[in-house]
Design a protein that fits this description.
single chain, 375 residues, alpha/beta, Rossmann fold, three-stranded antiparallel β-sheet, 11 helices, 47% helix, 18% strand, rod-shaped
């Protein structure tokens, strides 16, 4: 664009300088000079437009501007060839004729032509389809993909945590999500069956609502299917592009239901590069009236699941320890996400088309009503 601007302006200035040494300019020379001036003017306008609005407005059909060369070519051909095909009538005593210039004469000669030319330019701009560009830049961020497995079995209502195991797990998970601003997090609720409650998302406000909507009994609460829960989470994480894919399994018991063995599900998760961090949420048997040997956590199974996947097992005996465990997991490695941007385009050709139609109408009104040429 800059090169074209320099060439067109230099060409115009060269013709203008040459015209100073010509005593009488012919029509061909005048048309050439006017054409070069028009091209230089258009190139200057294009350069100014690109400088000030080039990042906000673009034309989807820029080839439409080539149509402006058609009337310009017709004008040049008509001017150059008119003497060949026209007949000149010689009048006597033309030296006595007095040229009378008036505003009405100038308007009659140039107003309709100017309006038609402006209408043509505006319609060409509309045909080029200008659009306003709204770019939204998303800066580079870091994060990992995490699935939270929330145990909603009946044993989670015991009160060795305040106010009970399930509510303490809910509140701790919500605080954990609030700290992971750039992570995609999903939720799986499980008891006898496993249910994907929320897919991986960055909409953490929605996640908070999903966790708040969980309740004991949302699925059959009489059993605990840890293997099925791991399988559901691993199936959702397997196609993730993040380098770090993590499952946080929170439960207070042993696996006693489901169709998939927990260790088999853990091996499948490890094959997909998914680490599983297991958290047992129950106080030790005998520490308080709410814990007994019958519902003791199978620590051996939890440790093996964590070891198979490269994770770690944690035992939380109260809500404070559970909070510390989540804080420890919060220090996991990050995965960098490249910057990206989204572009929204809005058509803005309508004003140009409307003004062009108005110019056409005004040109017809001036030519046929107010500025009539009398032979």
């Amino acid at each position: 664009m800059i090169l074209f601007l320099i060439i067109s302006v230099c060409f115009f200035l060269g013709l203008l300088a040459a015209s100073l040494f010509v005593k009488k300019l012919g029509k061909a020379w005048a048309v050439l000079l006017a054409t070069s001036a028009g091209i230089a003017f258009i190139s200057i306008c294009a350069a100014l437009f690109t400088h000030f609005w080039g990042e906000e407005i673009e034309f989807l059909h820029p080839w439409a501007f080539l149509l402006l060369s058609l009337p310009l070519a017709a004008l040049i051909i008509h001017t150059l060839l008119r003497p060949v095909f026209s007949r000149n009538i010689i009048y006597s005593m033309t030296h006595l004729q007095v040229e009378q210039a008036s505003l009405r004469l100038l308007l009659t000669r140039w107003m309709p032509v100017g309006l038609y030319t402006l209408a043509l330019i505006l319609m060409t701009i509309a045909l080029a389809r200008p659009v306003h560009i709204d770019r939204v830049f998303i800066p580079p961020t870091e994060g990992i993909d995490i699935i939270l497995l929330m145990d909603v079995s009946a044993s989670m209502q015991k009160n060795d945590f305040y106010p009970n195991r399930f509510v303490a797990a809910q509140q701790t998970a919500k605080r954990f999500i609030a700290k992971r601003l750039t992570d995609r997090i999903g939720i799986v609720a499980f008891a006898k069956v496993a249910m994907l409650q929320a897919p991986l998302t960055l909409d953490h406000e929605a996640l908070q609502e999903y966790i708040s909507s969980l309740f004991l009994g949302i699925v059959n609460p009489d059993y605990t299917a840890i293997g099925d829960a791991l399988a559901v989470a691993a199936n959702h994480l397997k196609d993730s592009k993040a380098k770090s894919k993590i499952i946080i399994l929170l439960t207070d018991g042993d696996s006693n239901a489901g169709t998939i063995e927990p260790l088999l599900a853990a091996k499948a998760a490890a094959a997909y590069g998914i680490r599983v961090y297991t958290i047992g949420t129950a106080s030790a048997p005998g520490d308080n009236p709410y814990s007994n040997q019958a519902d003791e956590i199978n620590e051996g199974l939890m440790m093996e699941i964590a070891q198979l996947t490269g994770g770690k097992f944690y035992r939380a005996k109260n809500e404070a320890e559970l909070e510390k465990i989540y804080d420890t997991i919060n220090e996991l490695e990050k995965t960098a996400f490249a910057p990206s941007s989204s572009i929204n385009r809005t058509d803005i050709y309508h004003p140009f088309l409307f003004i062009a139609l108005c110019c056409l109408l005004l040109g017809l009104v001036f030519e046929k009503i107010f500025l009539i040429k009398v032979p």
